[in-house]
Automatic annotation (TrEMBL):
Residues 458-470 have a biased composition (Low complexity). GO terms for molecular function: guanyl-nucleotide exchange factor activity; small GTPase binding. It comes from Chelydra serpentina (Snapping turtle). Pfam families: RhoGEF (PF00621), SOS1_NGEF_PH (PF22697). One of its GO terms (biological process) is regulation of actin filament polymerization. Residues 81-227 form the DH domain. This is DH domain-containing protein. InterPro entries: DBL_dom_sf, DH_dom, PH-like_dom_sf, PH_domain, PH_PLEKHG1_G2_G3, SOS1_NGEF_PH. Residues 281-379 form the PH domain. It comes from the Eukaryota. Residues 1-26, 417-476 are annotated as: Disordered.
Length: 476
């Protein structure tokens, strides 16, 4: 029988005053000892495992072997891979909660109690963010993990609390600001001395900045800890599989929110650097997907390309600023991937044939990256209606196959989607400069005649795109 909350220990070793990772608590017949036991592997190092077993823990492997020494102290427990993974989850959660308690009590609490430190309340709030909420949440989670009696119960703890892990989103998004404030504090001699004194008093080998990173690391590691091999019967435990999927989704969501935050910050910065753009705020064109500078055929200087979810913006670098040159809506994008130069590809506007950009990438990797996202956005923004019964994944796959199919003129982006029952209207063109200022066109462009005898201008007025758009004037 396994005693409740027993700790493994080397036989004959007295129990230390305070428990720590790898230490023993208790002695005699009540202590479970697996030190030096054959056949038992540590969850992480392949040696003897140490840590706290959950109360009432029932190993997944029914074959449990106990070996008693002459004194009756030593026992050897053979655990399955699943048991070792569960043991590691509980053990590492204990160490993590101890670190959180140290941040809250030994750093934040000491700062609040001290009234002479030159720290403003907003600096303290930014530095520690919602670390107290995280400490309270993980303390409760640890209690549930320690009281669980099976791998299924351990996994259910993560599934049932999946929505509560959302508190990590705020902390992770604030972490760069926290590091910035901490580094400002270290430039102050009084604050730098205070943090060094606390580190020395707590006998921490690592500074506070490292401890503040632990919640970010922990939330992105749960799904890795839950990934286990197959059970002896060859099946993966359904509860563990569900917990792994749940925590993978949590990690993905936090990473995605962090990426969007960084892109939004870059978007605001770009809005302030863009000269000559008279259009709406750039955020109206969706997320900033890619950006880069390329050599363009028949252009002396490099051009900066900014690919949004709904538009491709082309600009010229002028010092720290960008001067607007042109743009193409993604619904009108056409892409020619294969040119004589293996590093080049051509981007053009379906509604303005003269607006073409032959772009040269620096290497094949950069070209593949841009080609991938350009193709994806062409499919996502294509005006053709797709049957609802087709799933999103199949729609994208079929769209790409059709998009990449060779056509007579070698271009892609048009004429390769199934036509709906009613004829499609002409896609809205990217605004022309001469349309913007009311100058007459020199000649009619191809493709402006719609079905039913309507002219391209009449259709655009019907769609609401034929109105003057003064924001399309390029910078001189």
């Amino acid at each position: 029988l396994l005693p409740s909350k027993s700790r493994v220990a080397n036989p004959g070793t007295p129990a230390p005053a305070s428990p720590s990772r790898g230490a023993a608590v208790g002695s005699g017949a009540g202590a479970l000892a697996v030190g030096g036991a054959p056949g038992y592997s540590s969850p992480s190092r392949g040696r003897c495992a140490t840590g706290t077993l959950p109360a009432g823990w029932a190993p997944a492997n029914p074959s449990v072997s106990l070996f008693l020494s002459a004194s009756g102290h030593q026992a050897v427990l053979r655990l399955s891979q699943l048991d070792r993974v569960v043991l590691e989850i509980v053990e590492t959660e204990q160490a993590y909660v101890r670190d959180l308690r140290s941040i809250v009590e030994d750093y934040l609490g000491c700062i609040i109690d001290s009234g002479h430190l030159p720290l403003k309340p907003e600096q303290v709030s930014t530095l520690f963010c919602n670390i107290e909420d995280i400490y309270e949440f993980n303390s409760e989670l640890l209690e549930e993990l320690e009281s669980s009696s099976s791998a299924h119960a351990i996994a259910e703890c993560f599934v049932q609390r999946s929505e509560e892990f959302d508190i990590y989103t705020l902390y992770c998004m604030n972490y760069p600001n926290s590091v910035s404030v901490l580094r400002e504090c270290m430039e102050n001699p009084v604050l730098a001395g205070f943090f060094r004194e606390r580190q020395a008093m707590l006998c921490h080998s690592l500074p506070l900045e490292t401890y503040l990173l632990k919640p970010v690391q922990r939330i992105l590691k749960y799904h890795l800890l839950l990934q286990v091999g197959e059970t002896p019967d060859g099946a993966r435990p359904p509860a563990v599989e569900e917990a792994t999927i749940t925590m993978t989704a949590v990690a993905w969501y936090i990473n995605d929110m962090k990426r969007k935050q960084e892109h939004a910050a870059r978007l605001q910065e770009l809005q302030g650097l863009l000269v000559g753009w008279m259009g709406p705020e750039l955020e109206a064109f969706g997320e900033l997907v890619l950006e880069g500078q390329f050599r363009v055929q028949r252009v002396r200087r490099e051009r900066a390309f900014f690919l949004f979810s709904k538009m491709l913006l082309v600009a010229k670098r002028r010092g720290p600023a960008f001067v607007y040159k042109s743009h193409i809506f993604c619904c009108n994008l056409a892409l020619l991937e294969s040119l004589k130069d293996p590093l080049s590809f051509k981007i053009s506007d379906l509604t303005i044939p003269k607006q073409q950009h032959v772009v040269q990438a620096r290497n094949q990797e950069e070209k593949r990256l841009w080609i991938h996202y350009l193709k994806r956005l062409i499919v996502e923004n294509h005006p053709a209606s797709i049957p609802q019964k087709v799933s999103r994944g199949r729609m994208q796959l079929r769209g790409l196959r059709c998009l990449l199919a060779p056509v007579p003129n070698g271009d892609i982006g048009s004429g390769c989607f199934p036509q709906p029952a009613s004829p499609l209207k002409t896609p809205a063109p990217s605004p022309r400069t001469e349309d913007t200022w009311g100058f007459p066109r020199g000649r009619r462009q191809s493709g402006t005649k719609g079905s039913g005898g309507e002219s391209g201008a009449q259709q655009l007025l019907q769609w609401g795109w034929g109105l003057p758009q003064p924001w399309a004037k390029p910078a001189r």
